[in-house]
Amino acid sequence: MATDLTTGHEMCRPVIRLAMLSHYFEEHRGGVEIVAGALARALSPLGFEIVWLATDKKAFRDETSNPERRGLPASNIVELTAKIPYPLPFPSAIRSIFAEVRNADVVLVHDALYLTSVAALFASRFYRKPFLVVQHIGIVPYRNLILRSLMAVANRVIAVPVLNRADQIVFISDLTRRYFETLHCPRTPQLIFNGVDTEIFFPPECEADKATARADLGLPPFAPIALFVGRFVEKKGLLHLEHLARERDDVLFVFAGWGDIDPSQWTLPNIRVFRELVGPSLALLYRAADVLLLPSVGEGFPLVIQEALACGLPIVCGADTAAADKEAEPFLTTIAIDVETPKATAAALGAATSRLLESGENGRQSRVARAEFCRSRYSWRASAEHYATLLRGLVAFPKP
Asked: pTM of whole model > 0.85?
């Protein structure tokens, strides 16, 4: 265990060595890995010395910051062929996981389904280290029956056994918690929503700020802008958005992200694509838009929902996504999403978008109300302190 730190005459808590694992680093730009990075940075000043392990093209070790980063060599063949982000770690990566878990006081993994999480479970049991799982996702209802069946089987064969053996489970949404409600965990599973950095994501002060944001991004000053943020993959509802963009040439559809689906290939004049926006530049795009469209399925509570709320943006999303946090539902416009009927879903999405664009939902008062709700509901500081309490409890009392 780490030794005590003393600052002046004040005795601080013992520093805890935390081994944190996710399937990718945040440069991959998926929601899980972005949250992993944000949580690590929020925990660092709370008395945690963190080693963050995630797969990469090659092995590396960066000891220049807290969290310290350790790249695990892995194959990305599954994502390249099946378009599913599921890295396959090499044997040397498994050895690295065991080595880092051996030196840690406690282990935290993001999502039980990944092989890095499975390896971390075996290592934590071998070295008798407490093991916490942050479960982000339940089931993804892919249109492809084979993929949908594989996901269900993988949950039963991999995720559920890992979760049942965890010393503590944290769900990031009520939707995910309900999907896994039959689990048997020695400690009561906790619901902790992801946080959002409201120093970066905040609403425009006035219409002039919105106009400036559009000018900075090279967007037209007066066109209604519908925004999508996330990976360009099937489960995010890109097919629905393509149908809608073809029907609504009066709306400019802006896509921020990357993936195997390329909206710029739809050859539509009302499409703009940004691939490199993160942090402040992404927040600028939220402030430039009129509405966020997120017709995704099979997610917990996407971080982009929270970021858009922090920027005061009206949101259209699926009813399941909104149900992930009942407190947020009054601030969301929901539709039924059917992956088997993309045209019908696009029609519902279009109708909801029209209502928001024609209403007063983009006024200053409405934007401020959403931002204030987000600031009070989704604080990274409060979330990190909750995690810190759980982790300290596991270290102090590793067995219930």
From this structure: no
Strand partners, 226: 253, 291
Cα–Cα distance, 382 to 101 (Å, whole number): 27
CA distances from 104 to 109, 137, 299 (A): 13, 26, 30
Burial class (CB in 10 A: 0-12, 13-18, 19+), 105: buried
Contact 349, 355 (CB under 8 A): no
For residue 289, the domain's CATH number is 3.40.50.2000
Cross-strand partners of 48: 16
With respect to residue 239, please indicate whether it lies within any of the assigned structural domains. yes
Q: Is residue 200 part of a domain?
A: no
Domain count, the chain: 2
Confirm whether 337 is domain-assigned. Answer: yes
DSSP character string of 79-128: HHHH-----EE-HHHHHHHHHHHHH-SEEEEE-TTSHHHHHHHHHHHHTT
- Residue span of the structural domain in which 64 resides: 6-195+379-396
Same domain, yes or no, for 154 and 233?
A: no
202 assigned to some structural domain: no
The phi-psi region of residue 257 (left if phi > 0; otherwise alpha if psi is between -120 and 50; otherwise beta) is left
Q: Residue 329 has which token pair? A: 């539902």
| Beta carbons of 173 and 324 less than 8 angstroms apart | yes
Judge if 99 and 243 occupy the same domain.
no
* pLDDT mean values, one per 10 residues, the chain (400 residues): 39 83 90 91 94 92 87 93 89 97 97 96 97 89 76 90 96 89 87 91 93 96 95 90 95 94 95 94 97 88 92 94 90 89 89 89 85 92 94 82
Per-residue pLDDT, 317: 95
